[in-house]
Give the backbone structure.
Amino acid sequence: MTAVQTQPNTYVRTLYLTHGPSFDSLPFDPAQVVRKAVGTATFSFANGNSGTFACEVDLGDGVNEASRKGPGVPRTGYGMSMIVAKDFL
């Protein structure tokens, strides 16, 4: 996901809800894919090891803390782990 930097260490992006045929449908018809803007996501980084993910969506709002995983912990993505503080969807 790419986001726009709105201030130092803060990035914002529109969140979309999509639905349509399975990506492996044959034949795949991209015209059947529907995309609807449902809110915004904000990523704020305190430093290289921690930050916050916040979202405002039609279904509810939420905030999650993000922190870098320590040595020996399997890594995913870019090495940041989302620790869910609230089930907001």
